[in-house]
Specification:
- This protein is of the alpha+beta class.
- It has a single domain, classed as Creatinase/methionine aminopeptidase superfamily (Creatine Amidinohydrolase, Alpha-Beta Complex), CATH 3.90.230.
- The chain has helices at about 5-30, 40-50, 120-140, 145-160, and strands at about 55, 70-75, 75-80, 90-100, 105-115, 160-165, 170, 180, 200-210, 215, 225, 235-240, 245-250.
- Strands 6, 7, 8, 9, 12 and 13 form a 6-stranded antiparallel β-sheet that branches.
Length: about 250
């Protein structure tokens, strides 16, 4: 087997293993997402579980970041720093988490409503879940990334919501964030955007809000980003590995 093929197989094996570890972590972490639990308590549990399951924390390898998760509540869209905030009834929590295994990162995101969501919020969340499922199905070798961007923008905006334009998906591998980016809107002809490449993994993200396309800094922590108009934000994310004849969903 050529060296490049060995590297390809080694990368895929490591990322699939990281995905298996993450699945076990999430099975034990999700039941603790409930009213009264602090985001810092959830992060400490995530750190413990990742190590117990044989992985390493991914996010603390980003310079300046020392947590295993980003936990963002309500108008905080992404990059929320775990703290002493206790989750409340009717909060919308965004969980962003990664695992690092044998030299490779994977990245995953999900959103959770504390309680029974009213129909307006249920539809809001379903829009992102369904959009993520569609773009995952479209991500194949040789497909232009612009097709993903157009799909996100059309599906989210056609339902009356707004994609956060400065926030994107991205390739992922030896670094958590790698090029190319996967934008959520189209600003050029699709055929002029990069194509998905065999042997690369991509973190596909749908990051959107009820009524705002802009984000600003929040909480004076250097990381948290909220919608500019304080509207509710939501996020869903999955890592996929591109192969010649199929796409493997690493985080499922």
């Amino acid at each position: 087997m050529p060296t490049s093929s060995l590297a390809y197989a080694s990368k895929k094996k490591a990322m699939v293993k990281a995905g298996a570890i993450l699945k076990k972590v999430l099975q034990e972490l999700k039941p603790h997402i409930k009213v009264g639990v602090t985001t810092l308590e959830l992060d400490k549990l995530a750190q413990k579980l990742i190590k117990q399951k044989g992985g390493q924390i991914s996010f603390n390898k980003v310079p300046g970041y020392r947590w295993a998760t980003c936990l963002s509540v309500n108008e905080i869209v992404v990059h929320g720093v775990p703290n002493n905030y206790a989750l409340k009834q009717n909060d919308l929590l965004k969980l962003d988490i990664g695992v690092y295994f044998n030299g490779y990162h994977i990245d995953y995101g999900d959103s959770f409503y504390l309680g029974v969501p009213p129909l307006k919020i249920k539809r809001f969340m379903q829009a992102g879940q369904e959009t993520l499922a569609e773009i995952v199905s479209l991500a194949k070798a040789g497909v232009h990334i612009g097709l993903i961007s157009r799909t996100i923008q059309q599906r989210i905006e056609s339902q009356g919501y707004q994609v956060i334009r400065n926030l994107t998906g991205h390739a992922v591998g030896k670094e958590l964030h790698e090029d190319p980016l996967v934008p959520q809107f189209v600003d050029r002809p699709i055929e002029k955007t990069p194509c998905f490449e065999v042997g690369k993994a991509y973190a596909l993200e749908v990051i959107y809000s009820l009524s705002d396309s802009e984000e600003v800094r929040a909480n004076n922590d250097g990381w948290s980003l909220k919608t500019k108009n304080n509207s509710l934000g939501c996020c869903f994310e999955s890592t996929v590995f591109i192969e010649k004849h199929k796409t493997t969903i690493i985080t499922n």
